[in-house]
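Let's practice the habit of predicting before peeking. Look at the sequence and jot down your guess about where helices and strands might fall. Then scroll down.
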Amino acid sequence: MVEVVTQARECIVSVGSRSREPAYLLEIERALRREPNLIHYRILIGPPHSQVLKDHLLRLVELDEIPAAGARRKRLYVSMLTDLAADHERFFIVSERTAVIVLPSANSPGNFDTGLVVRDDTYVQGLILHGKALYGKHRLENVKAVEDLRVLR
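Done guessing? Here is the structure:
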């Protein structure tokens, strides 16, 4: 997942509310600092499951308030789907060339510790469009909106 982020130059699309790996989340923040025209979509499926993810979202919106040198457009799109009966949970990260689809663990019923790496251009582009299409009306693009989120665990 870190590799997908470090290779991104145009966009990163992350879908899911369970991310809690600090190295991965920090790499997204670094990429946004490093690449002035990088666009990031983060779509939550329900509220964040961890304080680590909520803190990451806060850093993202704070970072977005300081325009990157050379940035010419909106760069951060964060929203949450709230109808979990209609919007089934899914987990993936994708950039221009690679996607990682996170799968349930084969070792522990409560974990998602397996990833399927996809490099097929057509599928990767389809996942980018899929993630962007999930961006919705419950937007979390300012500090107050993120602070108001309830963490599940």
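How did you do? The mean pLDDT is 92.
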